[in-house]
């Protein structure tokens, strides 16, 4: 798989902890879906504080390696935070709207294909969980877990919002990591934009309060091909860091990634990375998978 330019903003509660080991050879997921089996082990780097910034703006594996120290977030008592279990794949729940579902991608797997492929390449192990299913049967000859919580047309909350689905989805899927990107349909539909960041905060609280032991990765939403629409997206995206930071300060395991900048770093993204006005194409989904993997790879075993 090609690896495009990767921009990731990581908000950690405090310093990164010591190294971890990857565990392979597991071939069944907690919900019975197919997942990868890998052998051997790998060890993360040493500690060090990771603060808000960009990782890998020059692209590729070398750029991503800049933020990989240790297992991740340390809690208030100094104990390392390691959400993924040893001995079986890390359960990752993609949660969001049609972009999470993979709309616009040729195989229907969206960013999950690139994220899975990079995990396999790195010799680590994950499986996707959720009540929805889309994507190819295999990726690189490895059975692909199709599960997700992607809902086309859905907003943050309300009648067609993902907030009412969150607790049920989390109890059923029991994820170790949740990848959350939502808000595109709120902006596109002019749905209570003034309060969209606060509504996102309520959704974040629901997720982390349902299971305080999981890691929640929150994404700024991707741009569209319309500059006027992007002018409405940017205020929403610009408010998300403060929303995340407030939860980090409260001791929640939440980090932030910047999907918007990952796309706009390529001046030609509108024609090269977009399937239509609002959805990425296969190349755009590679960009997204790259960003997600950079954010969670140090937690995977």
Give an account of the 3D structure.
The chain is of the alpha/beta class and 301 residues long. It has a single domain, classed as SGNH hydrolase (Rossmann fold). 33% of the residues lie in helices and 12% in strands. The protein has helices spanning 60-64, 98-101, 111-121, 163-173, 184-188, 196-210, 227-249, 259-264, 269-272, 282-296; strands at residues 90-96, 126-128, 132-133, 138-139, 142-143, 147-150, 177-181, 215-220, 254-258. The strands form two sheets. Strands 1, 2, 3, 6, 7, 8 and 9 form a seven-stranded mixed sheet that branches. It has a two-stranded antiparallel sheet with strand order 4-5. A hairpin with a 2-residue loop joins β4 (138-139) and β5 (142-143). Mean pLDDT is 80; it is low at 1-78.
Brief summary of the model shown:
The protein has 10 helices and 9 strands. With 301 residues, it is α/β, with parallel strands linked by helices. Strands 1, 2, 3, 6, 7, 8 and 9 form a 7-stranded mixed β-sheet that branches. The protein has a two-stranded antiparallel sheet with strand order 4-5.
Taking pLDDT < 50 over at least 5 consecutive residues as the criterion, the unreliable ranges are 1-78
Write down the CATH class.
Alpha Beta
The amount of helix comes to 25-40%
Distance between the termini: 21 Å
CATH architecture annotation name: 3-Layer(aba) Sandwich
What is the CATH homologous superfamily assignment?
Answer: SGNH hydrolase
Instruction: Please work out how many helical segments DSSP would assign.
Output: 10
**SS content category:** alpha/beta
Tell me how many strands there are: 9
Q: What is the fold named in CATH at topology level?
A: Rossmann fold
The proportion of residues in beta strands is 5-15%
- Radius of gyration from the alpha-carbon trace, in angstroms: 17 Å
Number of domains: 1
- What can be said about the biggest beta sheet? 7 strands, mixed
